[in-house]
Amino acid sequence: MEEQNYIQFEAYLFEELTQEETNAFELQLQNDKEFQESFETYKEFSSFLENKYKNESARNDFKENLKNISEKHFGTRKTETKIETKVVRFKAWQYAIAASVLLLIGVTIFQQFSTPSFGDYNQYDTVSLTLRGDQDELIQKAETAFNVRDFKNAELYFDNLTDVYSENIEYQLYHAISLVELDFFDEADAVFGRISEANSVYRYETVWRHALSKLKQEDVAGCSALLEIIPQEAEVYKKAQKLLKKLN
What we know:
The protein is mainly alpha-helical. The chain has 2 domains: 3-114, no CATH class; 121-247, Alpha Horseshoe (Serine Threonine Protein Phosphatase 5, Tetratricopeptide repeat), CATH 1.25.40.10. It contains 12 helices and no strands. The longest helix has 21 residues, at 92-112.
């Protein structure tokens, strides 16, 4: 099983996929038996955890005993002698899935019940600012710097771009993100504030990024307050709610 499949499973269950991605996922479920079996196994384990480990002490007990559980059910198979009682036999790939999911659950439990951090969320889609034939060198440099996470230069380039193209909200947003990555929080707050007031298509993406800035500063109250104002129709609503639940 690939880790990317588990990411897909989680995104599908939380309805975070686009319609096109959802259609592709469901088509693969229909045509790929191993993928379907893995998804069903993942859902069963997820449902088990959600229903059984509802309080923090139970979750902690589960995390502490996870290693023992793994050794008991997977580690002792090498030394077992013949047993006359009924044995349920699994195919090799089923053992592999079970072992992989058990390991994944250990990691997932740790991630879900530990405090979320900015580093969990500061992944960005590839920026594409230049149009075909666009020869604006400054725009090209800003795009490249941001995509390779060279935020020091990206901040400088986007700062210059916002002077030249003062009405371009997209440039302002990438400038603010670069400022957050460099820990220039006051400057970023000012940019986020201007974008939020502009009522553009980037409005709630801006609120989301502003909330992540507060998360990086460990300002849980400030982060939560921003997440709460993101409406249900916003594209970032589901992941904002997911983060909000972790913070609370």
